[in-house]
Amino acid sequence: MLDTIDPELGGFARTARDLVLAGGKRLRPTFAYWGWRGVAGPAEPAEPLLPALGALELMHTFALVHDDLMDDSATRRGRPTAHRIFAGRHGERFGNSAAVLIGDLCLVWADQLLARTPVPPATLLEVRARYDRMRVEAVAGQYLDVLGETAPGDWSLERALLVARHKTASYTVQWPLSFGLALAGGCHPSVGEAYRVYGLAVGEAFQLRDDLLGVYGDPAVTGKPAGDDLRTGKPTALLMLARQMARPAQLDELATAGPERQAQIIAETGAPARVEELIRARVAEGLTALAGAPIEPEARATLIELATVATHRPA
After folding, report:
1. pLDDT: is 153 or 63 the higher one?
2. pTM score > 0.90 for this model?
3. What is the CATH number of the domain that holds 182?
């Protein structure tokens, strides 16, 4: 369609497509699928769900492109970020503007895919309600994330975890599971509550792992530069814990050191080990909630495995 308007738009759309297909963990559609399979049973065909599951990945690309722009990240998945791709063609201002539009286009495509999902209208209405709630919470969490960078000294561990809950947990695990449950139709309150607890706990653990990888991850594996969070002053849970646990001299140096030395100081405080404890506790909470849920055994086993995959990963 865009090709017919102007040849330049064809290239623009292909860049958006390439960003969607550039790899990644595909966790959101995976959690949605198993949320659906948990109540739909093993025999129900999954093909009708594919547009809805694809919509989650497009929505994720929208979020990543805008997040990379806000953080001025140079790479994502080992490739240049959208704003850097376009900046290489016509300069920084053009790159930033084009990245906003790439994200917007992915969000429109996500809406179009979701609308094509062949499920009963009442089911699609409920799915859409959860999809919209997920998007609102993701935007709210992103706003708080950006706000934290304006005054990191005023932030707290509790507020950092609040950001993790809304920016990451809700749209990575919690709402995709609920989205999948809604695709199955019917009323499953006990399953919904188990998914909610599991989703928030595992989703927060996912973000806590991201905090650690953002400082100590290998860029060759993560596909992202190390130290971006420290460079921008993002008040992550890791940094908030380090400030709580630091000795006065460490705290003073943490405020003035460069990212490499900051990473060393944070390690010396013991904050990374404390974050590992928080991750383990949240995974355990999620698995406990799942243990009593009336869902299909295969779905339960896979969600148990996914909790580990999502929270103990090198990238």
Report:
1. 63
2. yes
3. 1.10.600.10
